[in-house]
């Protein structure tokens, strides 16, 4: 668990927090994949926060994704934040390919 905590990307509180937060599209435990990048990382959502992400100055919901051991970037990062627009749920056919491998 300590390795995960050390690898969580930095975030900062937004200057203004709205009175109502946006409805989240993904939930803790859900399998997702990045679909707008060539490497195709995937994993499970382990957290959802409303924040101002320091790396690209975007305010809103951010999903903390624990990368699967077979995800291409897992060797260099255990988890990463994702914007809602950059991820999608994994379909059953993708998950079925990994049946028996702790998915």
Question: Care to describe what's here?
Answer:
The structure is a single chain. 11% of the residues lie in helices and 35% in strands. It has helices at residues 2-7, 92-96, and strands at 11-12, 31-34, 42-53, 58-67, 79-83, 87-89. Strands 1, 2, 3, 4, 5 and 6 form a six-stranded antiparallel β-sheet that branches. A hairpin with a 7-residue loop joins strand 2 and strand 3. The relative contact order is 0.24.
Summarize the structure.
The chain is mostly beta strands and 103 residues long. It has two helices and six strands, in the order αββββββα. Strands 1, 2, 3, 4, 5 and 6 form a six-stranded antiparallel β-sheet that branches.
Distance between the termini: 19 Å
Tally of strands: 6
Give the count of helical stretches.
Answer: 2
Helix content estimate: 10-25%
Structural classification: mainly beta
The stretches of 5 or more residues where confidence is low (pLDDT under 50) are none
What share of the residues does DSSP label as strand, in percent?
25-35%
Report the biggest beta sheet as strand number plus sense, adding barrel if it closes.
6 strands, antiparallel
Computed over alpha carbons, the radius of gyration is 14 Å
Q: Encode the helix/strand succession as letters.
A: HEEEEEEH
Average pLDDT taken over every residue: 79
Silhouette: globular
